[in-house]
Amino acid sequence: MNRVLTTGVIAASQLALVGLAVAPQLSARASGDTYLLRVAPVDPIDPFRGAYVALDYPGLREDDAPVLDDGRQGDLYVTLEQHGDVWRAGEWSRERPDDGPYLACDDRTWQVQCGIESWFLPQDEAKQVERLLRDGAVAEVKVDGRGNAAVVDVRAP
């Protein structure tokens, strides 16, 4: 009985860790509001990582809303402001905004990551999306109340 209990505890712990890893994406998909962001391709499909499209968001890195450069690294938040049909970066801050839509990001690596930098697809769909991105596209992104974001679609504007 002790062996069964130990195995059960180990399995439950591993399941909990997987749940923690995907919780932000699931939260955004389940309870998030939808925002459209301009999107551009970064690089083609990587055979080592599978069929995915690496995405760049020009509206999050505009000259009028530069990324915070305070010499620190860690949690970073960017408010979203509507410009026509799409949303763009407002202000960058180390403090979580009190209201309005925002993205929770991280700048501990060489680039700011907001959890929406890649989108995994079946191989044939990834090639179609890559062509679409070259012609200009928007990403439909769901963002929950804590700034967690998930890409749900990429389409023509």
Descriptive account of the structure:
This protein is an alpha+beta fold and 157 residues long. The chain has one domain (2-155). It has two helices and eight strands, in the order H-E-E-E-E-E-E-H-E-E. It has helices at 2-31, 123-134; strands at 33-41, 52-56, 75-83, 86-93, 102-106, 118-120, 137-143, 149-155. It has a five-stranded antiparallel β-sheet.
* Shape category: globular
Number of strands: 8
Query: What's the arrangement of strands in the largest beta sheet?
Result: 6-2-1-7-8
**SSE succession:** HEEEEEEHEE
In terms of structural class, how would the helical and strand content be classed? alpha+beta
**Domains (count):** 1
| Strand proportion | 25-35%
Mean pLDDT rating: 79
Note the main sheet: 5 strands, antiparallel
Low-confidence stretches: none
Terminal CA distance reads 60 Å
Radius of gyration: 18 Å
Q: Helicity, in percent?
A: 25-40%
Tally of contiguous helical segments: 2
